[in-house]
Write a structure and sequence with these properties.
Blueprint (H helix, E strand, L loop, with lengths): L9 H4 L3 H11 L22 E2 L6 E2 H11 L6
Antiparallel strand pairs: 1-2
Length: 76
């Protein structure tokens, strides 16, 4: 289960508040303080291949698309 879809079951559990509370307790994503899931791409939301340098906070795929617009040059 990903962090974005754990709320899909809320419509079914609205009529059962005790089960809904237990579901939220065990299935909600943890608040992150370190690790790969802490930093996400500003553009697409990917967590991997993250470029943090110069305060960019984008993934490498988005960097290839947006690099020339930002002012980076491709050598070779």
């Amino acid at each position: 289960m990903t962090t974005s879809d754990y709320k899909k079951a809320f419509t079914q559990l609205d009529h059962k508040p005790v089960k809904k509370a237990k579901y939220i307790k065990f299935n909600s994503p943890k608040p992150r303080s370190c690790g790969i899931a802490l930093r996400k791409c500003r553009n697409c939301g990917r967590t991997r291949a993250h470029i943090n340098k110069y305060g960019l906070h984008i993934c490498r795929q988005c960097f290839r698309e947006m690099g020339p617009e930002i002012g980076f040059k491709k050598y070779s």
